Every structure is written in structure tokens, then in C-alpha cells.
Amino acid sequence: VRSGWVSVVRDITERKRMEMERQKFFLLAESSSEFIGMCDLEMQPLYVNPAGMRLVGLPDLAAACRVKVPDYFFPEDQAFIANEFFPRVLREGHDTVEIRLRHFQTGKPIWFFYNLFSVLDDTGKAIGWATVSHDITERRQAANDLANERQRLKTLIQTLPDLVWLKDLEGVYLAGNPRFEQFIGKPERDILGKTDYDF
Q1: Residue 173: beta bridge partners?
Q2: DSSP label at residue 121
Q3: What is the DSSP letter of 130?
Q4: CA 20, CA 195: separation in Å to the nearest integer?
Q5: Which of 43, 65, 100, 183 could potentially form a cystine with 109 if both were Cys, beta carbons 3.0 to 4.6 Å apart?
Q6: Cα distance between residue 75 and residue 105, in whole Å
Q7: Per-residue pLDDT of the chain in tens (199 residues, 90 and over written 9)
Q8: Is 129 helix (H, G, I), strand (E, B) or coil?
Q9: φ, ψ at 133 (rounded to 5°)
Q10: Residue 116: enclosing H or E segment and its boundaries?
Q11: 8 Å CB contact between 134 and 112
């Protein structure tokens, strides 16, 4: 009786390539300052990068994965996230929204440019969602401060007895008081957003 060897060879090139791609993703995610996260179709988090955990005040990945995705958002926004936004991304593949996440330690809102996309398997079937999102809290605060300042200025302008108007650096009218409306001969709604050239 002769004895010998039987060899079974399996091509693992694709598996190795996928492992390398996954490793690249995690290296990028771990060093990013953006909020990067992934969840399954049940909205159960599978991964949140260190910057994401720090931004929302969670101590570690285990804690981040115990919280369902809608609970990351302010209560007023949770129905929109769960019933409208995520299903829309599942249908369309990708979408963005400016929305508040909550800081788990302080309860304070953190405004995000929330960029969400579907995660697909090898057959193209959606198996979850992923986000790479940017903290825009400071920008939103600056925009709110500017809007409040403009409103205060507009209120002041409306009360002055003199002919008063406000333009931006491009010469576009931003406000005008009643005396200015009389001078131009048009109501304020027909003046705002226009320049002298329009008249």
C-alpha cells in the first residue's frame, strides 16, 4: 500500500484584501477628528471611533455600543431620525442633515453636519449604516449670534425717526426703517435683497 499526501489549496487573496481594507478603515477612523460610526439595520451601534465617543461624552466602545442610535440624538429629533432620515438613506443610499446630538454627560446639544450612508454587503444588499459627521456647534452658535445681532439692529433702526437703512458690503439692502420705505416708495419686503442698481 502506497501512502502520500493530499493537498487542498484555497485562494485567500480576496479575504486578505478585505482584511487590509478593513484595517485601513480602522486606522483612518481611529485617528480622525470626525465622528465616525457604524450600526446594523436594528440601529445598534457596531463601532464609534474615539473622536466620536469624546464628542458625545461616552467613556469607551462598550458604552457607545450599548446605546441605540436614536438615543444619541435629542428627544425632539429621535422620531425624525428613526422614522424618516434613516429609512430614506436606506432607500437612496446617502443623505445629510444638520441635527443635534446630545452630550451624554452634560446633556448639552452638539450640532452636527450628519452625513449618513448605507453599508452594503458583497451582493449589494444593505446591512447597516455608517456616518462620517462633523461638529458644527461653533458655526451654528456664530450664525445664531449674527442673526440675533441683526434682529437687535433692525429693531433699533425701526425706532429711529431719521431716514435709516442697512446694507452689506456688496451694497445689498438688509433693512430699512419706515422713513426709508417712504423715501424709496416701496415696502421693506420689496427692498430687502436688492441694490441701488435695482431701483
Answers
A1: 167
A2: -
A3: E
A4: 58
A5: 100
A6: 16
A7: 566 666 666 665 666 665 666 666 677 778 888 999 999 999 999 999 999 999 999 999 999 999 999 999 999 999 999 999 999 999 999 999 999 999 999 999 999 999 999 998 888 899 999 999 999 988 877 777 777 787 887 788 778 888 888 888 888 888 888 888 888 888 888 888 888 887 7
A8: strand
A9: -125, 155
A10: strand 109-120
A11: yes
The pair phi, psi for residue 73, each rounded to 5°, is -100, 165
Q: At 112, phi and psi to the nearest 5?
A: -125, 145
d(CA 164, CA 182): 11
Return d(Cα 91, Cα 74) in angstroms, integer.
24
Answer for the pair 113, 134: CB distance below 8 angstroms, yes or no: yes
Query: Considering only CA atoms, which of 103, 106, 110 is closest in space to residue 141?
Result: 110
DSSP per-residue string spanning 20-44: HHHHHHHHHHHH-SSEEEEEETT--
Tell me the three cell numbers of residue 16: 486578505
Half-sphere exposure of 102 (CA within 13 A, CB side): 15
Residues in the chain: 199
